[in-house]
Amino acid sequence: MAESRKLRMGMVGGGPGAFIGPVHRIAAELDGKIELVAGAFSQSAERSRAAGETYRIDPARAYAGFEEMIRSERERPDSIDFVAIATPNHLHLPIALAAFEAGIAVVSDKPATATYSEVLKLEAAVAKASVPYALTHTYAGYALVREARSICANGELGKIRKVAVEYLQGWLSEPIESTGQKQAAWRSDPALSGPGGCIGDIGTHAFHLVEYVTGLEVTALNAVLRSVVPGRKLDDDCTALLRLGNGAEGVLVTSQIATGEGNGLRLRVYGEKGSLDWRQEDPNRLHFRRVDGLEELRHAGGSYLGSDARAVTRLPGGHPEGYLEAFAVLYREFADALLAAGKGRPVELPSTLPGIRAGVRGMRFIDRAIESSQNEKWVDF
Ligand code: NAD
Questions:
Q1: How far does the centroid of ligand 1 lie from the alpha carbon of residue 251, in Å?
Q2: What is the mean pLDDT of residues 251-271?
Q3: Ligand 1 atom showing the smallest separation from residue 87 Cα
Q4: CA–CA separation, 310 vs 304, rounded Å?
């Protein structure tokens, strides 16, 4: 961007009662580099207008659909710079393709698409596009996840030998999709969610965290997917064994019928010299245990943290940062890259920001896990 101004964001999704759209808006605007100016917030024109009012945008820019938003915005001198996708999964691909076609950048929520074949189309479109694509794997934005990633990259754990990741929620313990609960309804409908239920919704976050922190790729897996709640069309529970590129083994446990759990994401990484333990519900502390028994507790905001963690910290130690700030880190990295590139110059997104590669890996994970579970065997990645 040649001129000094905020980036202009157009959002799809985030209508009245939505979960993640309002989070995108708060996170995008937190650092003062982005402003929400347009949106197609709902599949209903009336609800999109109502959302536009609550977001305090120009009523003329609260559109009835994403096609109309992109068509109208591209004609404006003050057009949106990027689209934020916060809809159910089946719309991620068509919205991203329409944005790229118009030369508009994309920040999409996960999973990247609804199916594996779709993500290959998206990957090809990103490769051809003149504008960047980022994927909001929220947990990559936490300072102590960045610290854990640096510790692994620096070799401080020695050779990684074992990984245990769990992502346990309890909110789908009952068939609330049949009561009309909005978030549950589309998540348990294969036409809107894709073939993965829990494995796609939160399993992809757990899977991403493993590869993001360890820097290792999963090369094979053996998964058991179940639909525990009677009548549910997609999996709501998954247990998987993982094999990693360096020969390490891991276990990934993810469930939305883990009664009583809130957002229980936890990653443990065990190396020959030490181990790490991070929990999303206590995100400002990272346990680092050494092979000689010495235990360290690293706190967010600590002056001793590595540069990657300090770079995404806004507050001094003892002032808790959480979900919104982590989400905002991803937006800040995206905005900084766009603003630094200037008009017409290629945008280099930082390697700390998840992008299309993470999107393809995540969709592959869903695809492989389903195949493994159906055939009751290990599958290669
Ligand atoms: P939600 O049901 O709360 O919200 C979806 C919104 O999309 C609603 O406002 C709905 O009206 C709107 N919508 C549906 N069809 C539309 C259309 N054709 N045009 C415009 N708007 C339309 O769902 P949610 O929980 O907010 O999830 C949305 C997406 O975000 C999903 O892909 C989900 O996987 C992802 N998500 C990510 C995280 C994260 O941590 N990164 C957390 C939750 C959800």
A1: 29
A2: 98
A3: 7
A4: 9
